[in-house]
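User: Structure please.
Assistant: Input sequence and predicted structure:
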Amino acid sequence: MPTRLSTGYFDRIYSESEDPWQLGGRWYEQRKYAITLALLPYRRYRHAFEPGCSIGVLTEQLTTRCDHVTSTDIASAALDAAHRRLIDAGRRQNVTLLRRSVDDPWPQDGFDLVVLSELCYYLHPEVLRDTLDREIALLRPGTTVVAAHWRHPVAEYPMTGDYATDVIAATSDLHHLGGYRDADVIVEVFDTGSSKSVAARTGVPGA
């Protein structure tokens, strides 16, 4: 039984278009990325992990909030496009690009931010469950985990974004901080240490 959408599926998608989901120009995507970044509880991060980076649109934006970003994708064409985008933006030195799947063992580089953006519904639910149980336990306390997913069903995907978000939320050691949802997108933020609010974390009186 396949564990996720195949590498060939994504190779075909990128052979038809360098930006198959119009991540670089569609207002929906720009708005979603702005919401995702706005929900992060800290102003600055040391090292983010972004599996499934596609052509690097969000990757580039993460470099404005992170000292370094390690991004992965299973499609070599997507990584090539991300490489070019980051060079054009003058951000290539801030990013490590690797070819691998999210269900492969994650790099162990002391990440303090994990970004699961439009990714987890490509896995079968039991594979996502096993991956999160294995990898979240290895993250250090106080790591932010943010998940953003399209809510409408897609015939080829093993599960919906809502289902994937429920699997993520059920992960041991993840504490819910907040989120956003509308008819199209769901974005949820978690912490591996505690559920303290942003105000409490930053010493706002009365929090």
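The two ends are 49 Å apart (CA to CA).
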